[in-house]
Amino acid sequence: MITPADERLLRRAIEIAAHAVTLGDAPYGSLLAGPDGTVLAEAHNTVRRDDDITAHPELKLARWAARELDPDTAADTTMYTSCEPCGMCAGAIVRSGLGRVVHALSTAQLIALNPGSGARPTVRQDGPALFDAARAPIEAYYRA
Length: 144
What we know:
It contains 7 helices and 4 strands. By secondary structure, the protein is α+β, with helices and mostly antiparallel strands. A 4-stranded mixed sheet has the order 2-1-3-4, sandwiched between helices. A hairpin with a 5-residue loop joins strand 1 and strand 2. The longest helix is centred in the first third of the chain and has 19 residues. It comes from Streptomyces roseoviridis.
């Protein structure tokens, strides 16, 4: 359920995305808010500027949260973002321990507005293989 407070913070994420365009960056913006609605951090997409395919605002904020917030605080934190997080960012959000994401545009809506946004090739993956060799460093690390 989206509350009036959620709408206010989501509008701020959209403002961040609009500002990114004025800087020559892609139109995506995000912020993290604590349980009381205090904005903890903001970011926008800098993929082109940084020549870094991982410079999505959601990923930057997930990394920030994992580094700066204790697990209980992260779990009470909400990310507000102008577009639904991509698979890369969604994985980082889960790993960072954030408790909630509120997005404006869905991936389907984004693709309808910009069909190139959905043009991602699939990558072939083979495995698992070499279990005995691969498990040795895992077991050594987690037994320590």
